[in-house]
Amino acid sequence: MIFRVLIFGLLIVGLVAVSIFGVEILNQPKPQPVVAVVAPPPSEQIIVTAGALQAGSLLQPTDVTGAAVPTNAVPAGATLDTPQNMSSLVGSMVRAPLAAGAPVLATEVIHPGDHGFLAAVLAPGMRAVTVAVDNVTGANGLIWPGDNVDVLLTQTIAGAPEDKSIAAEVVLSDVRVIATGAELVKNAAAGADGGQPAQTVTLEVTPEQASRCLVATNLGRLSLIVHSAQTLADGKPARNAPPAPVYAGEVSPALASSQPAAPPQVSTVKVFQGSPAEQDYSF
Question: What is the DSSP letter of 165?
């Protein structure tokens, strides 16, 4: 009997030991699988188109962006994405149609200042005329090649009544900007070198518009008015007839009301009543 109790006790102790050992094994952390870390392939940041572009388009800042391309997939002639390269592309002309996201290759654009740039940009029968405007009248550098603008002339009219002494009128309407740049105005008061920077804008015009523009530059101050990019339902840009000239008195009612009243006009009629004597009647 004692022997059976002893055997039973040993079995119970053995079961308890096995249970404790099994629990410890279950609680041990499982080994994590080894994941191989693969380094990404080397890449280059290049300039690509932000949207589809037509042949003859003049690149604006919103037309290009940067994209990462595997080094072994960078096409020959691709333009690296640097601030200098981005700046140099603005105003360049696209030689052929480009799809959205296409790399901008050196062979597919012609830059302002390159030989033949103006001849390539101008439409058949059109001319290029360059005018100087300051930062204010030139929209402070916000006008880009490819924009359509009106050219506004503001002039002082000598000998005119005060309310008509200053006039503004549109001399060119809806002409395309094909280049912008800077020139040095000689004999200016500002600047240690005797000059101050002024903006130049080159416009695509007809021969008759070129003549009008050159006359306007000698009459007064030129300003540029940017057209909206909005298009109509037929896909053509919205165009309005040029407004009539605006005079100083129309802008300032106070100036118009300060003008002295015009003296009444008096007409005189000579009446002959059957004799050499005559009599004047004024009214």
Answer: S
- Model confidence pLDDT, tens digit, residues 6-32: 666 666 766 666 566 565 666 666 666
Q: Which residues of 257-272 are buried (b: 16+ CB within 10 A; e: fewer)?
A: eeeeeeeeeeeeeeee
Here the tokens at position 84 are: 């200098």
* pLDDT tens-digit series, residues 150-177: 999 999 998 888 888 899 999 999 999 9
Q: Are 242 and 171 in contact (CB under 8 A)?
A: no
The CA distance from 234 to 221, in Å, is 36
Please report the domains of the chain, with CATH numbers, ordered by start residue. 44-104 (3.90.1210.10), 121-229+241-261 (no CATH)
Rounded distance between C-alpha atoms, residue 198 and residue 188, angstroms: 11
> Of 185, 148, 169, whose CA–CA distance to 219 is shortest?
169
**What is the spatial distance between Cα 117 and Cα 40, in angstroms, rounded to a whole number?**
41
Q: Which residues contact 278 (CB under 8 A, 6 or more apart)?
A: 270, 271, 272
CA distance 242 to 174: 9
